[in-house]
Structure prediction request, 289 residues.
Amino acid sequence: MVFCSNAGLAPLPLTEYSLCLFAAFLANEGLQARTISAYLSGLRHLQISSGSSPPQFSSWPWLHYVTRGIKRSQSQGNNIRLPITLEVLKKLRGSWLETFDGDSSHDMWLLWAIACTAFFGFMRLGEIFSRKGEAPLKVSDLATDSHDNPSFFRILIRRAKNDPFGKGSFVFLGKSNKNICPVLALSRYLTLRPPVDKELFLKADGSPCSRDFFVSSVRNALARAGLNQSLFAGHSFRIGAATTAAAAGIPSHTIKRLGRWNSEAFNLYIRQSDISLCNISAIMASTPC
Prediction:
């Protein structure tokens, strides 16, 4: 509705012209061709639900040309994104310790907590930071079994890329009892965090930590560690988590649930306790580099 209002278009009935403009708009916003195709299918269903005849996408050549062009341009422009593994995480931590003057720095623990949350939570950065008007993680989205000696944190993801209706889902971070531990990282950060009830990840001055600040801090740390920063992106944490979990022998259906990926129907019948999800952090942290 917002797009149609800004473009001066009627939402329904759908036209080839309006869909071409909308597809181009979504591509410019950074959405992938597959996601754009899903949006167009959703619009087709919306028109049918309204009682109108279904739009004949197959007979609209210009829409075909636009969507095919988006797909081709993205496939040609995609950069290699290497996974951020445990070994890379260690390099990040070491680099931040040097940059922010040691173990007592707020920003060092802020960045380290976000990195561990993104990795062990299989998270998209869009689930941590605000994006396209969606709220970032709040303090109220975080729960634990103990404030003094937590063994796990549970994070509520209110809306995700594959959760268009905002049903929400939970991410579990368990204590690993290793040098790299998401629970210890978050616990240490929370002791330094400004005591205000708003965004979870805040800078020392109380302002929200932005996605740009985090990504630039990661890239600078990678460069200082002697790694090619251009081969890593924000999504490298999620890729690295899946890669590490697979190397640790964690079943594919568990990885799909941890990463909140859409899966085959049989996975809906697999029941796993919250405790088993909390134990995944320790298994991943024990994987040889």
Notes: The radius of gyration is 21 Å. The chain is about 45% helix and 5% strand.
